[in-house]
């Protein structure tokens, strides 16, 4: 199973593990969407998104990007965009447990969570789209700006730097870096503390904070994730 869900002490734990790079595709995004729905219906007070050991997510499945059928490709890419926007707008506190590598769309997945705690392991973190020949879509830029600020997001996107977890903390990609053996406990403790916040107020406040940027991003999903979304080879 790619995505597993468990509600414990008011915290929804969502674990992504495809045995490889935890890529974003129809299967993983469907699991994420289902988990968000369950967490809301079960009145979870917080949600934690976990990666697999040493890998949070390697980003959008490149097999999907190379899909020769344009209709299939664009439908899947647009679903990924809307799935990550749904996570960004989730009406409860969300925590990314960054277990390892989080690059390109995997970094966007982490930044879509309100809080981010990284394991102190050897890992690469960064918005590497520019370096691999992908034009950053508006929805991903909006999510990055929400986490890093306008200037920080622009530097991260255009520079496409690859950071260690501690360097990522200095740049605002993550809020904390925790030693491996303490990491799961710290993430769970932090998420449990968040359950004390009034969820209805939290969700309403987040909607107000995100509304303008979210509407702009949503309006451009079909264009940004259209037939031309593919690695560029011109340099």
Largest beta-sheet details: 6 strands, mixed
| Span between termini | 39 Å
The helical percent reads: 40-55%
Radius of gyration: 16 Å
Characterise this structure.
By secondary structure, the protein is α/β, with parallel strands linked by helices. The protein has one domain (3-180): 2-enoyl-CoA Hydratase, Chain A, domain 1 (Alpha-Beta Complex). 50% of the residues lie in helices and 19% in strands. It has nine helices and eleven strands. It has helices at residues 26-41, 62-65, 70-88, 105-111, 129-132, 138-159, 165-171, 183-194, 199-224, and strands at residues 3-8, 11-16, 23-24, 46-50, 54-57, 59-60, 94-98, 100-103, 115-119, 125-126, 176-178. It has a six-stranded mixed β-sheet, with helices on both faces. The longest helix is centred in the last third of the chain and has 26 residues, at 199-224. The radius of gyration is 16 Å and the shape is globular.
Write the layout of secondary structure elements.
Layout: E1 3-8, E2 11-16, E3 23-24, H1 26-41, E4 46-50, E5 54-57, E6 59-60, H2 62-65, H3 70-88, E7 94-98, E8 100-103, H4 105-111, E9 115-119, E10 125-126, H5 129-132, H6 138-159, H7 165-171, E11 176-178, H8 183-194, H9 199-224
Parallel strand pairs: 2-4, 3-6, 4-7, 5-8, 7-9, 8-10, 9-11
Antiparallel strand pairs: 1-2
Quick overview:
The chain is built from nine helices and eleven strands. It has 235 residues and is an alpha/beta fold.
Defining traits:
six-stranded mixed β-sheet
